[in-house]
């Protein structure tokens, strides 16, 4: 397939496009959807073949095949990330949002504090609040142009009511790939303060040349008795609609606690999610991902360099993901004026940085998972919208 093919997703029940005007005020008729974190590429042939196989069987009843799917997950994690994980440690959930909620239900009580490093994926805060737990923000700091954790500041702020660190690796919205040393330092912090570490690693395959994602369970093997790993094929292969995530719990005692909640909620995977995940985690899937990352790398280099040339705008260097994080602080404008220019003048619909928590107030997140021609158009519109700053 060609990643350059422009696909009109309007009217296809794509939330990214068909809900854009309601959510952002930008019409899909003349706007570019750059908010919801999915990609505007056609599904690859191996996923289409898997779906055709379902059609050919003409049977959508109760099904088997979950063990084989988990074997494919284990193969992928070993081959792509050097992480040996047993299928017996895995649970299939309704996506990773569901996984986060179940982890909070299993390992915390109402009123417990959950640490997150902000700005971070907004659903972390939403899930914590919905579960009646308490969000404890630990603001990231910028050093050498990228976000860093400030564990000393976090330690000084502890109340004693914290039970969990909910961690995003690689980082969304800024695409930070954490180093082995940073991961080990966080694991040691959790050990010192008896905190569970839930690591959401959904973007782990979308890492750019010169960077390497290290699973938390690999970086800190001595901490696996307190680590919960969250993964999914959904972001890499754009199959979020299949609603399947994987919770891996290496420690037997923690696994028993999670299994009790899992069984009580009667959670089981759906047929399409199992079939697509198994098809994705395959040699054909690996070849496609390598091509995808090369394409996204070209997109992000072009976008970041172009944005940095616009006075007042600054894009954080991208180490992973297709989500660009742009700071508008130096425009001297209020964010109301910035968003008016971006949405009404440029007709672009990014995500508002404020929803990602402290540190995101003056930023917007732009989704670059689209054909390069559309990224080029987005850059041209940004330049025009802020041309008076030239």
TrEMBL record:
Keyword Transferase assigned: yes
Keyword terms: Aminotransferase, Lyase, Pyridoxal phosphate, Transferase
Record-listed E.C. numbers: 2.6.1.-
GO molecular function, one term: lyase activity
Cofactor (UniProt): pyridoxal 5'-phosphate
All residue ranges annotated as the Aminotransferase class I/classII large domain in the record: 58-382
Gene3D superfamilies: Aspartate Aminotransferase, domain 1, Type I PLP-dependent aspartate aminotransferase-like (Major domain)
Family membership noted in the UniProt record: Belongs to the class-I pyridoxal-phosphate-dependent aminotransferase family.
The protein, known as: Aminotransferase
Organism: Roseovarius pelagicus
């Amino acid at each position: 397939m060609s990643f350059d093919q422009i696909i009109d997703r309007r009217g296809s029940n794509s939330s990214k496009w068909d809900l854009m005007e309601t959510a952002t005020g930008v019409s899909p008729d003349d706007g570019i959807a750059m908010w919801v974190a999915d990609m505007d590429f056609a599904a690859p042939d191996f996923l289409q073949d898997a779906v055709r196989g379902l059609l050919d069987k003409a049977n959508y009843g109760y099904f088997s095949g979950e063990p084989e799917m988990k074997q494919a997950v284990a193969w992928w994690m070993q081959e792509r990330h050097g992480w040996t994980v047993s299928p017996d440690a895995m649970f299939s959930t309704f996506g990773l949002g569901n996984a986060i909620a179940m982890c909070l239900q299993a390992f915390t009580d109402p009123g417990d504090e959950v640490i997150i490093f902000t700005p971070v994926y907004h659903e972390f805060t939403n899930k914590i609040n919905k579960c009646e737990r308490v969000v404890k923000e630990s603001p990231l700091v910028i050093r050498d142009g990228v976000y860093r954790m400030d564990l000393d500041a976090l330690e000084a702020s502890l109340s004693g009511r914290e039970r969990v660190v909910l961690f995003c690796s690689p980082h969304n919205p800024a695409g930070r790939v954490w180093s082995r040393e940073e991961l080990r330092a966080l694991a040691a912090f959790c050990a010192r303060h008896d905190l569970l570490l839930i690591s959401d690693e959904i973007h782990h395959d979308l890492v750019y040349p010169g960077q390497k994602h290290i699973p938390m369970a690999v970086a800190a093997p001595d901490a696996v008795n307190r680590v919960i790993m969250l993964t999914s094929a959904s972001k890499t292969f754009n199959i979020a609609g299949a609603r399947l995530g994987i919770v891996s719990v290496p420690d037997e005692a923690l696994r028993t606690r999670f299994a009790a909640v899992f069984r009580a909620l009667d959670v089981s995977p759906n047929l399409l999610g199992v079939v697509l995940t198994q098809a994705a985690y395959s040699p054909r899937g690996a070849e496609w991902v390598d091509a995808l990352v090369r394409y996204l790398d070209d997109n992000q280099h072009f976008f970041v360099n172009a944005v940095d040339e616009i006075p007042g705008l600054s894009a954080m260097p991208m180490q992973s993901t297709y989500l660009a994080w742009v700071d508008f602080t130096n425009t001297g404008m209020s964010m109301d004026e910035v968003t008016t220019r971006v949405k009404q003048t440029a007709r672009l619909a990014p995500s508002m940085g404020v929803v990602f928590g402290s540190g995101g107030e003056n930023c917007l997140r732009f989704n670059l998972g689209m054909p390069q021609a559309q990224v080029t158009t987005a850059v041209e519109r940004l330049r025009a919208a802020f041309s008076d700053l030239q």
